[in-house]
Amino acid sequence: MKHVIPVVTLRTRQDTRLLFELAEGGLPLAEITFRTPYAAEGIRLCARELPSVFVGAGSVVNEEQAKLALGAGARFLVSPGLSEPICRLAREAGVPYLPCAVTPAEIMHALGLGIQTVKFFPASVYGGIQALKALSAPFPTMKFVPTGGVTLENLKDYLSLGCVAAVGGSFMTEGDVRSTCKEIRRIMESAL
Ligand code: 3PG
To answer: What are the structural domains of the chain?
Structure first.
C-alpha cells in the first residue's frame, strides 16, 4: 500500500498532540516543517516521545536546518527544491532525502545525483495528475510524491498513478483528524 505523508507545522508543544492523533488514526509518520522556530524542538520531542512514529523534517532549505533536523532525530529530510549540500548531509547521516523537482531539468538533476524519488510540489500549481503522466514518459523510473493541493477528493486519483510513490499534504491535520484519517485509510486501501 502507498503511504500518505501528513505535512505538519508545529508552533507549540501542545501542537504535537496532532502526531498522536495521526498515529491513532493509522498514519504513523509525519513531515514536520521548518516553517516555525519550534520545528527542531518539535521533532526532538516527537522522536523521543513517539518512537513508533516515523518523523522527518520538511521545508528544509539550507544546511543549517538540515543539521538541526538531523540533530533533533529527523529520520528523513524533505526540501521544497533540490540542494546538493543537503543531499550530502542526508547521505552521510544515512537518512532518505526527498527533494522537490517539477521540471524536466530539475528531474534530470535529481537523476544525476542518484535520487529515485522526488517531491512534486505544489502539485496543483504544476499541473497535477496531467503533468505527472506527461513527465513519466521521459522519466519512466522516477517516482513522485505529489504534495500541495491534495485533498480527500483527488487523493485516490493521485495514489492510483504508477509513478506515484506516496502522497503528502496537510489536509488531514485540520478538523476531526481521526475521522479524516479513517477516510484516508479507506481510500489508500481502495487505490491498491
Ligand atoms: C508542503 O509543504 O508540502 C505543503 O505545504 C503541503 O501542501 P498542502 O497544505 O496544500 O497540503
So the answer is: 3-191 (3.20.20.70)
